[in-house]
Amino acid sequence: TLKADKADLVELYQLKANRVDSDELAKLQETIHRQLEYLAVTTFGLSKLSLTEPRPGESKTLRTQQKAQVLMQSEALWTWILHNEPPPNLDTLRPPPARGNA
Question: Which of 10, 54, 87, 90 is disulfide-compatible with 76, CB 3.0–4.6 A?
Answer without folding.
Answer: 87
